[in-house]
Design brief:
20 strands, binds 8-demethyl-8-dimethylamino-flavin-adenine-dinucleotide, 389 residues, FAD/NAD(P)-binding domain, alpha+beta, 12 helices, six-stranded mixed β-sheet, binds P-hydroxybenzoic acid, eight-stranded mixed β-sheet
Length: 389
């Protein structure tokens, strides 16, 4: 088999790249390790920058997002049960869209089906070859049979645990990492959201976040020690803990119900450089991870795909390889800014196990400054709603 581009990983990055290339008539095959049902059952991101919304529109998959998504013009921050609002529209004239990653993935699969694009699920042992030659190819096993796809380029969109990044020689790859000493316990429930906009809460018992998927489906998180086991958290214990950490008026309004998903996610900052090696490009979580505090992971994946799509289109339509040559530097410049923002939000809002009284005061002052300064709010709004491409 032959394709112009082999895309490893059928998460949001891989599917979106496949869709954008397909619309340009560039042939791309997506190889995904898991089943479609598995991919569609992963509950992850919920907030899209407006630039990501526009990219999904450009890919022709924005209709349901605009019909069902919830545009938000601001966000609440809270410290010790007292909240204040950052008005995105007033500060930077932009908004964000609340629309679940699961829905985006479903919309992208539907578009692939409609276009007759090839997605190979349960592709095992996916291995790229000849990435530093002019004739790369990818092998994989499906139902016990080995297959080979010859191609021009390989897009590594296979997430943090994927194979693509490991193909870059150790002498070339440089990794930067920070692991945080806590995780987020997340609960999804079919209850009306406690607030019309997200609430990020700093509390002495630990961080909490009130988010949502729809007007009837809520997503909540509380910071927990990494040693906690999800099975040890009953729904009741979760709701009680959340109530303690959020502003009192919200706690009084909180509607609880059975969880339909409950999981613990560790928090990590990670960047791999470079994001291109020969004919391999990394995009999304394959190249970088952010702690979810800034809602940037999925948005960065969309940003990478946007640059990569532009680069491949210029190559195929005009024989212009400047985008390909510049992909890594261009993507990393934006990635590092989102890493900085996600790290700073994480540092400002969480309780660290060894936090000194000085660090505690710094955190409180950071929040107090944000509450009182239009300049600080503008910077926060600019980053949260998305830096320019
Ligand atoms: P994904 O989604 O991990 O998809 C990678 C795909 O590759 C497949 N794969 C392989 N396929 C073939 N061969 C192999 N060897 C393979 N190895 C892996 C996997 O099965 C998978 O299908 O990466 P992608 O596409 O780069 O997308 C990244 C986003 O999923 C991620 O950044 C976000 O979910 C992060 N994130 C958030 N991002 C936001 O922008 N806004 C948010 O509000 C937000 N909230 C979150 C989040 C992530 C969370 N968790 C659990 C990590 C909240 C949470 C709790
Ligand atoms: C979510 O809704 O899952 C969500 C929202 C904002 C974040 C992280 C996760 O910062």
């Amino acid at each position: 088999m032959r394709a112009q581009v082999v895309i490893i990983g059928g998460g949001p990055a891989g599917l979106l790249l496949g869709q954008l290339l397909h619309r340009d008539g560039i042939e791309a095959v997506v190889l995904e390790l898991r089943t479609r049902d598995y991919v569609l059952s992963r509950i992850r991101a919920g907030v899209l920058e407006w630039g990501a919304v526009e990219t999904l529109d450009a890919a022709g998959v924005g209709a349901r997002m605009h019909a069902e998504g919830l545009p938000h013009e601001g966000v609440y921050l809270a410290a010790q049960n007292r909240g204040f609002r950052i008005d995105f529209e007033a500060r930077v004239g932009r908004r964000v869209m609340v629309y679940g990653q699961t829905e985006i993935t479903a919309d992208l699969y539907a578009a692939r089906d409609a276009a007759g694009a090839v997605t190979i699920h349960e592709a095992e042992g996916v291995t790229p070859h000849g990435l530093d030659t002019d004739a790369p190819y990818v092998t994989y096993t499906k139902d016990g049979t080995e297959h080979r796809i010859d191609c021009d380029f390989v897009a590594g969109c296979d997430g943090f645990h994927g194979v693509s990044r490991t193909c870059i020689p150790k002498s070339v790859l440089r990794a930067f990492e920070r692991v945080y000493p806590f995780g987020w316990l997340g609960v999804l429930s079919d209850t009306p959201p406690v607030s019309d906009e997200l609430i990020y809460a700093n509390h002495e018992r630990g961080f909490a976040l009130c988010s949502m998927r729809t007007k009837t489906r809520s997503r909540y998180y509380v910071q927990v020690p990494l040693s906690d086991k999800v099975g040890a958290w009953s729904d009741q214990a979760f709701w009680d803990e959340l109530r303690r950490r959020i502003p009192e008026d919200s706690a009084a309004r909180l509607v609880t119900g059975p969880s339909i998903e409950k999981s613990i996610a560790p928090l990590r900052s990670f960047v791999a450089e470079p994001m291109r090696w020969g004919r391999l490009f990394l995009a999304g979580d394959a190249a970088h991870i952010v702690p979810p505090t800034g809602a940037k992971g999925l948005n960065l994946a969309v940003g990478d795909v946007r640059y990569l799509h532009e680069a491949l289109l210029a190559h195929y339509s005009d024989g212009d390889d400047t985008g390909i040559e510049g992909y890594s530097d261009r993507a990393l410049a934006r990635v590092w800014k989102a890493e900085r923002f996600s790290w700073s939000m994480t540092m400002m809002l969480h309780r660290f196990p060894d936090q000194s009284p000085f660090e505690q005061r710094m955190q409180e002052t950071e929040l107090a400054y944000l509450e009182s300064s239009v300049a600080a709010q503008t910077a926060m709004a600019e980053n949260y709603t998305g830096l320019p491409f």
